[in-house]
Amino acid sequence: MSPLRLVNISLLILFPIAWIAPLLRAGVLPLFGLSEISVLSGIAGLWETDIFLALVVIFFALIAPIAKVVAMEGYLSGRLPARIKPWLFQLGRLAMADIFLIAIYITLAKGIGVGRVEVAWGLYLFTACVLTSLGLSLWAVRERG
Length: 145
Fold this sequence. Notes:
elongated; mainly alpha; 5 helices; 3-stranded antiparallel sheet; single chain
C-alpha cells in the first residue's frame, strides 16, 4: 500500500475522533466553568433550534470530508477513473468551508466580549484532517497526471 493511501485511510479514523473531540471551550462569564463544544455536540444543539442549519453543518462537516476520503481511496487504488479528479478538488473545498465558519464564530464571540471562548485540541485535529485531505488530493492529482 502506498504512503498516500495509508495517510488517506487513516483519515477514516481521525475524522470521527475530531468530530467528538472538543473544538472549543465556551462560557458566558469568566467566573463560571467552560462548556466543551464538539462538532457532534454542536450539531445536536443546532438540531434542537434549527434543523436546516444542522443539516447544512452535517453535510459540510461530516458527509463531505468522508465522501472525499472514500472517493480518494477509490481513485488512488485505481477503482475510480481519472475523470473524478475535478470532483475530489471540489469535495475538498466543501470540507474546508466548515473550518472557515468555525473561525468566524470564534472571531465573533471574542469580539462581542460577553463570554469567553478558548480553542481546544479538537479544532487543531479537525483542521489537520481537513488540510491533510486537501493536500492529499492536490498531491494525488499531480502524481497521477
